[in-house]
Design goal:
The structure holds two protein chains of two kinds.
Chain A (H helix, E strand, L loop, with lengths): L8 H4 L2 H11 L5 E2 L2 H4 L16 E3 L4 H14 L2 E5 L15 E5 L6 E5 L4 E5 L4 H8 L4 E2 L12 H7 L6 H4 L6 E7 L5 E5 L10 H5 L8 E8 L1 E2 L4 E8 L2 H13 L6 E6 H11 L9 E8 L2 H16 L5 E4 L3 H12 L1 H8 L2 E4 L9 H15 L3 E6 L4 E8 L4 H20 L18 H4 L2 H14 L22
Parallel strand pairs in A: 2-4, 3-4
Antiparallel strand pairs in A: 1-2, 5-6, 6-10, 7-11, 8-9, 8-10, 12-14, 12-15, 13-14, 13-17, 16-18, 17-18
Helix pairs in contact in A: 10-13, 14-15
Chain B lengths: L2 E3 L4 H14 L3 E4 L15 E4 L6 E5 L4 E5 L4 H10 L2 E2 L8 H4 L7 H6 L7 H4 L6 E7 L5 E5 L11 H5 L8 E8 L1 E2 L3 E9 L2 H12 L5 E7 L4 E9 L1 H14 L6 E5 H12 L10 E7 L5 H10 L3 E5 L4 E7 L2 H13 L3 E6 L2 H6 L8 H14 L15
Parallel strand pairs in B: 1-3, 2-3
Antiparallel strand pairs in B: 4-5, 5-9, 6-10, 7-8, 7-9, 11-13, 11-14, 12-13, 15-17, 15-18, 16-17
Helix pairs in contact in B: 10-11
Classes of the chains: A alpha+beta, B alpha+beta.
């Protein structure tokens, strides 16, 4: 269980005054303070943790966000920034003595420029909303987290979100040009712009993935890309995880970078097949979904090359999609993986470590042993090209012991990821979930350095409290 | 001439910096010193170099990962990658011709300056491919950020903060990069265009096509030449180049380059040679939205200079008379479209006089001072390299 500090009584006592001040800044229906209406904001995608916030404020403009933050800074009120609340690491988990600043009403698309290949949007525009705005002209916004129908670009910036296609197109950080950044002191700063590689320190790079620790973002300028002529998938199933891993190495080694390269282990194949009836081979120990892009002839050429490589690894099954429909059928099981696991287990924790891909067989073997040790099932899906592992640990939330075992199991997996040369989180963020494991990856000195950089932006430590950094040994500024 | 210290290893480097920190004594930071002529000159009695921290420490082609000590020369890394059919994604320029130096750039120097070549427009900048760093901060403490895996969002991303900080926030000692397979084939479409506007429209049409353009430059001359590169497996390059040629036929007469000729062409563009900067001229590197590139190019011509555009028009290299007034004109032209202007190289007197980088707005400058104080509390690392008095 992750400890959350007790709320400060002096802040709780000021609730009426704080709500009145916020209502003056965001008039009308901009502030929520009644307990029943605050309830929907009590958690995010990490539903095991819940805290009803002091109030929720829903600004419509950058100036309002700046005024809210300035007020909170001047009166010592903590702030939890929120987009759509889809964080899987508890990045948007409220605190009882904090004000949630939600950006969902800032959902305008400000500018689309196909010539310069960029879009300027407010932070509350959904990820898919950007692609939808430009797809009629054949363009798209590349990062595609699985929550892309709901998650908002402001949250994507703060968590540096990834997705299944980042092996080729990169993560959020690689697809940004600029942000409108609001400091806790209420200053509005334009960082970057419509151009690449602005001169001077790379503040855009530092802010991206900072999990709401440094400030808030109200507008984002993203690069948009012209889509390929087409894309098609194939499926390859193997007798062992080592064999599938070796096939991945051979594909990359041949000079092909598929646009997606997804790996599923046996429990995951079974769960997905039972759910989606995608025709996955149930006798396989591991399965790859490989997608390539280009004209039909280019797709044929690349898929033939990949098929020839896979054939060297004694596959159980090789299925090359002949059409877009067949591609969708191959993806159907994978896209429904989380739902599929949700069907065979009442609850699951989705982990998110990254490992050097050469360590995959060893790591999967160790996860299997831990599964036995903890008495909990686990299914693994994995972005094989970039080593980003998503073990889904199955448990029952109504059984406290089961939940605690699931958390310990998850922590052991992440320790293992760091041990083999990887990291705690590839795309979900540290949030509240992995906060206490940061000491596994970083020395005390390194954490202090990061904390001091946070202090440079947020001297009173009011922004997104109790996340990212372990609570012990906090600098004095934190209290 | 500043006294040169070249510690043999990271511990030695950390000790040298710790000593300078304790003595509150400014030090200049460099690798091979190939970019001493970049930005502002540093006044320091001592220079600390990473040149002896050399060598590739990890190369795992199947994992697309390479680590090397900061002082490793770029050509050594390029050669090791080429042996396995891979390459540096951002194709950093070889700037020896611009700076008039002999020694090649080091990995640390290229990352510290975040220098990227033509492929940046499609595949990201040098800083986009930095997966992890080890660095010594201004107090002489060894720190790490990132790691050796391709996806990592654990903690604040100090890799990006240090990349492009020109040695003013810390001294990188080891850098881990994402690398990619080198393409089997390279082809280039050259279009003779009437003017810069037409040229940038042609580049935009190419970059906005589904054919995967990985280089888009506009070269000065009579006529101006728009160049678009396709890199991939050979059948793809043949196919896409033909389609691109059809799609862009209306922009002007065109020809195709392939094989070694195409590769040599883009090496020239990468190294900014088509700009033809003379030794007595200054060189500016201006980043704007691509459609604003032609206006900056015209401002350069009005000064009696020339411009070469890369990144689809968004990166404008300018060679013009080395005068403060020219700098002010170009900085204003960049700012007019919200872009940034860097005085990349010029006589020392000019680099000392003008603001070589744009000023930050006051609120950001205040945060910058605080962050600098965290990473370099005594302010000893490369003082004055980026801005006077900082």
């Amino acid at each position: 269980m992750i400890t959350l500090p007790a709320p400060k009584p002096e802040i709780l006592a000021r609730k009426a005054e704080i709500v009145a001040a916020l209502s003056a800044i965001v008039p009308g229906d901009g502030v929520i303070s009644e307990p029943t209406r605050l309830k929907p904001y009590e958690t995010d995608g990490l539903a095991a943790y819940r805290q009803v916030p002091l109030a929720v404020v829903l600004p419509r403009t950058t100036d309002q966000v700046a005024a809210v933050l300035r007020y909170c800074h001047e009166t010592g009120v903590r702030v939890v920034p929120r987009g759509a609340g889809t964080s899987l690491s508890g990045g948007a988990l409220p605190m009882e003595d904090a004000v949630v600043v939600g950006l969902m009403r800032m959902n305008r698309i400000i500018e689309i420029d196909l010539e310069d290949r960029l879009a300027v949007v407010e932070a509350g525009v959904t990820n898919i909303g950007i692609t939808n705005a430009v797809s009629g002209d054949g363009f798209f916004y590349a990062p595609d987290p699985s929550s892309q129908l709901a998650c908002m670009i402001g949250g994507n910036v703060m968590m540096n979100s990834g997705g299944a296609h980042c092996l080729k197109y990169g993560v959020t950080a690689n697809n940004l040009l600029g942000v409108k950044f609001v400091t806790i002191e209420g200053e509005v700063i334009d960082i970057g712009g419509a151009h690449l590689d602005a001169a001077g320190y790379d503040w855009l790079g530092l802010i991206t993935g900072s999990e709401g620790q440094l400030g808030m973002v109200t507008e984002v300028t993203v690069r948009i890309l012209r889509g390929p002529e087409g894309a098609r998938a194939m499926l390859a199933a193997f007798k062992g995880t080592e064999i599938a891993g070796a096939a991945v190495d051979a594909i990359i080694g041949s000079g092909i970078i598929p646009v997606a390269l997804e790996f599923m282990d046996k429990p995951c194949i079974h769960a997905c097949e039972a759910f989606a009836h995608a025709g996955y081979p149930l006798d396989a120990e591991a399965m790859l979904i490989i997608e390539v892009e280009g004209s039909v002839a280019e797709q044929d050429d690349l898929l033939a090359r990949i098929k020839a490589i896979c054939e060297r690894f004694d596959p159980i099954s090789l299925k090359v999609a002949e059409s877009a429909e067949q591609s969708l059928a191959i993806w159907k099981g994978r896209k429904g993986a989380f739902g599929a696991v949700g069907r065979i287990s009442p609850d699951y924790l989705c982990m998110d470590g990254t490992i050097p891909t050469s360590e995959l067989p060893f790591v999967l073997k160790r996860i299997g042993e831990m599964s036995t040790q903890y008495g909990l099932g686990v299914a693994n899906v994995f972005h094989a090209g970039d080593g980003n592992l998503h073990p889904l640990i199955m448990f029952d939330a109504n059984d406290a012991d089961s939940f605690h075992r699931a958390e310990s199991f998850g922590a052991d997996i992440l320790r293992l990821c760091v041990e083999v040369g990887g990291c705690l989180t590839g795309e979900h963020g540290v949030g509240v979930e992995k906060r206490d494991l940061m000491t596994v990856q970083f020395t005390a000195h390194e954490l202090d350095q990061q904390r001091a950089i946070k202090s440079a932006f947020d001297p009173q430590w009011l922004l997104n409290p109790s996340k990212v950094f372990p609570l012990q040994d906090m600098p004095l500024a934190a209290e | 001439m500043s006294e040169l210290l070249s510690p043999p290893d990271e511990a030695g480097l950390a000790a040298a910096i710790a000593a300078a920190h304790a003595a509150r004594e400014p030090i200049a930071i460099e690798g091979n010193g190939s970019k001493r002529g970049l930005l502002r000159p540093v006044q320091a009695a001592r220079t600390v170099s990473t040149r002896n921290l050399s060598g590739i420490t990890l190369y795992s082609p199947a994992e697309l990962v390479l680590s090397a000590r900061a002082g490793t020369p770029i050509p050594e890394i390029e050669a090791a990658l080429a042996e396995k059919g891979q390459h540096l994604i951002a194709e950093p320029p070889d700037t020896r011709a611009i700076f008039g130096t002999d020694e090649p750039a080091t990995l640390g120097g290229i990352v510290a300056a975040n220098l990227s070549g033509p492929r940046r427009v499609a595949w990201g900048a040098m800083r986009d491919h930095v997966l992890g760093i080890r660095f010594v901060n201004g107090a002489g403490e060894v720190m790490r950020s990132g790691g050796r895996v391709l996806k990592n969002v654990t903690g604040l991303d100090l890799c990006k903060l240090l990349a492009g900080s020109y040695g003013t926030l810390g001294v990188m000692t080891e850098i881990t990069l994402k690398v990619l397979p080198a393409p089997e084939a390279t082809g280039t479409l050259l279009i003779a265009v009437a003017d810069a506007e037409m040229g940038v429209r042609a580049l935009s049409a190419g970059l906005g096509s589904p054919f995967g353009v990985s280089g888009a430059a506009l070269l000065p001359g009579e006529p101006m030449m728009a160049a678009l590169r396709i890199e991939d497996f050979a059948p793809s390059v043949t196919y896409r180049l033909a389609r691109l040629r059809e799609a862009l036929a209306s922009f002007g007469n065109n020809t195709v380059l392939d094989g070694d000729a195409a590769r040599a062409f883009w090496r020239e563009v990468r190294d900014v040679r088509p700009l033809g900067a003379a030794a007595e001229e200054a060189v500016w590197r201006i980043s704007v939205r691509p459609s604003a590139g032609p206006a900056v190019a015209r401002a350069a011509e009005a000064l009696g200079g020339r411009a070469m555009l890369d990144w689809g028009g968004g990166l404008v290299w300018v060679a013009a008379p080395a005068q403060a007034s020219a700098h002010e004109t170009l900085a204003a032209a960049a700012a007019a479209s919200g872009g940034t202007c860097t005085l990349f190289h010029g006589p020392e007197a000019l680099r000392r006089t003008v603001a070589v980088l744009p000023q930050e707005p006051p609120a950001l400058a205040m945060i910058a001072r605080r962050v600098k104080a965290v990473l370099d509390p005594a302010g000893i690392l490369n003082p004055g390299r980026m801005r006077a008095g900082g």
